[in-house]
From TrEMBL:
Name of the protein in its database record: UPF0473 protein ADM90_17750
PANTHER family: UPF0473 PROTEIN CBO2561/CLC_2432 (PTHR40066), UPF0473 PROTEIN CBO2561_CLC_2432 (PTHR40066:SF1)
Lineage of origin: Bacteria, Bacillati, Bacillota, Bacilli, Bacillales
Organism: Lysinibacillus macroides
Family of the protein in this entry: Belongs to the UPF0473 family.
Amino acid sequence: MAHEHNHEEELHVQHITVIDENGNEQLCEVIHVHESPEFGKSYVFYSMVGAEEDEDGSVEIFVSSFVPSENGEDGELAPIETEAEWDMVEDVLNALEDENED
């Protein structure tokens, strides 16, 4: 089977579906994925698709740890559990913000 390579797909924004505490599905845009050897986990930074910007032009960013499924196509998001993880996540987010300012 031949695989057609589409360069536009490389620029495609990745989306995930998050289920909120009320069981509603929310489409989210993946901003960044960070692999942490220190914690042995991946972390996904995302925002809600269609989220309104605040007066500073910012949207709320969410972060969860990510455990991929065995097939590698999807997985489970889990809450960040420790202060050390939050500190690492904040450092990554600050670095991302600094990159975007340049």
